[in-house]
Specification:
By secondary structure, this protein is mainly α. Helix content is about 65%, strand content about 0%.
Length: about 150
Amino acid sequence: MSDQLTSLLTQFHLTKENLTKPCSDNLFLTLSQEIPSFEVAAPYFGCTQSVIEEIRQDHDKERSKKLHMLWNWKSRNGSDATYLAIVTIFLQMENRLLAELVLKTQSCEITSIAIDSHVNPGRVSRYGNWEALNDVEKEQIKNTLISENEII
């Protein structure tokens, strides 16, 4: 594991095991807005020249091209199209911001699950509506849950 990946996992309080599930379509929708260029990203996602050309011809909008590139990657890689795999690709692209976005998404998802499944009913009001919290509040809750060993 690269030093950069280790550093990011530490920063987001995640382990490689937290990143073994396949990427969600919601993640792909977010990434299709954030990936800077289909043309640059496609080779990193294993698209052959013929696939790149096919996507170019079938889709006019840049976001649509990137979304179909991600779905193509997922269909070719199946269960190996994981959060860890996509973070690794973004680090190979030297795009730490996108790697951080994926990890932040996964970290928030894990924290949401932890709150839903590990907080006893008497403490639910302590956290309120997760979606209404800002990033600092979410990070504080996540750190509290980690320190209380409520996240596996």
